[in-house]
Amino acid sequence: VMDRDIKRILIQTTCLPDLIGDTPLPFIREARKRGDVKIYWTSKTMVMRDVYRTICLDSLNGIQFKKVRRPDHVILAGISNDRQKDELSRLLFDLLKLKVVGFMYPEVGFDAYPEIGSASWIVWGNPVGWQDQDSSIFRGKLGIVEPSPPFGIAGTLEWLKTIGARLGLDARGELLAAGLRKAFGARIEEIKGRCGSRRIALIGDLADLQLLTSRNDFCGFAVSDILREMGFNLKFFLYGSGLKTADHRPTPKNLRAFSSGLQLEQLLSEEKSALAFSSFSHDPRLIRRGIHSFSENAFAPGMEGFLRSAGMLLSMAENVPFTNQRHLLRPAG
Question: CA-to-CA distance for 285 and 328, rounded, in angstroms?
Fold first, then answer.
């Protein structure tokens, strides 16, 4: 509390203090008398969203916004990875001439961004996981742009178009697409050519496959669409029956059904899949067949993220796992 370099303190407690009737409130009240540090408290029995909203609102109120803002200065929200922040910031500048002057969510303190007071807009990079945050805290301070997250080629193009249109810029699709082709076209074609000989399996019941083949709050993009953009060949393995085909859904041509673990392993062997989507880090059914697994976490936003993700998945497909140990795993019953 007495350290002048510390501006905020967040105290997080488990449910145990509440169960035994303990509380840090007397300590917090005493600490507040001794310094100007803002102190926040949350526990397992509280709604973290409300505390987080208060922290964000206090931080925004602490920004000395300039009387005349820069319409080309923006705050990028919802990106936690430093590499992704740099890549999306360069993309915004190169194609829309927008300068990112600060970041928010998960950041809630802005002391590291001296130009943030000139920002006119907060632009969402990836809103997935932040949907419960109250956007009303920006009212009267910043304009808000909430596009779909920039995953994949089409997703990145749509992201840029939405931002440009909201800010009144020349964001015609053909111009942005030409800019992306000029900057990334050769690398995209090279990785697509290498991925084209590899097959990926998407496995599950109807609800699972619908999640993987449509844009939704699960991850903000359709996994199947991005894999196709990378050039991979897709196979869909449906547990049970009752498939209803629709746009961007599996079709009978590339779908096969199974009703047991043994049938699934037979399909994996017959179709010679190199990779399979799975939420399990080490799925014994896949390992037995020499198949790596991956999840939605394998995908990164933006064009650099797209290329990096494709390269990682290709490397996994080219390297068969556990070649000397797979025989130790018993086959499915």
Answer: 12
